[in-house]
Amino acid sequence: MRPLADTFALTADEIAAFHRDGWVTLRGFLDDAELRPLTDLYMRFLRREIPVRGRDYCDMTGDYARAPEDFAILNVMLPRVYWPALAGNIYERRAADVTRQLWGDGFAIDYDQLVAKPPGKTDAVFHWHQDLGYWPITPDTRTATFWLGLDDIADDNGCVRFVDGSHREPELREHLPLHGDRDKNHTLVATVDPTRDRIRSTVMPRGSVTVHHERTVHGSGGNTSTRWRRGYVLAFRSQATIAAERAMGFTHSHNDAVQVLTMIGEQTKKRERR
Fold it and tell me: Which of the four CATH numbers 3.40.50.20, 2.60.120.620, 2.30.130.10, 3.30.980.10 does domain 12-273 have?
């Protein structure tokens, strides 16, 4: 049995899977008693009982024109900023221990996020992407991004799907704006070939997590079920990388004055060279 403490011992196979495939599933990461207070707070955020500023409460489909009652993917960026007592919870402590086992010391939380697909939201689609496609490119790409399921997660309510080994490709895949204009919709879409890429789904019971690398291609479909699909994200990156981001004014808030378009710029240069 896994110890119910601040630690979560990984097996050699789990560590190998993360580095080989760019992601791994860890079942039984939190039990029901540990999930309960996090779920209660999570729903307070979704009901907007805890104020969240500007676009840090948004529809993660990227459509800025939608009213909150029409959001398909309810998204709260940086909840520990808006509710400081959230910092240091059992999920954070256990995830920090796993990160040390995967990468060693010198890591910290870069950002946290709550992302939920309500029942019956068939358009709650996360298009294929690499996280680094949205972030400034920094020399140290070591990342451990945790996705905690607060519900049973399956294909019908929009489980995350990963492209195995995509984090080891020498360049990021081409990402293009979903509708050609990031002022209206911020979503980027990466190129994926289902006939060549090895795609796997993360069906898992509540309380489990996936952990993935910032270069791993992933996405998810809509929620066709009558159940919620609620995820709680923690991203750990090196302290040097976090300091470099903050120095350029990038905090992962959707209210950042800095709009990172490095990825689009690089893809434009590539097309111009063809």
Answer: 2.60.120.620
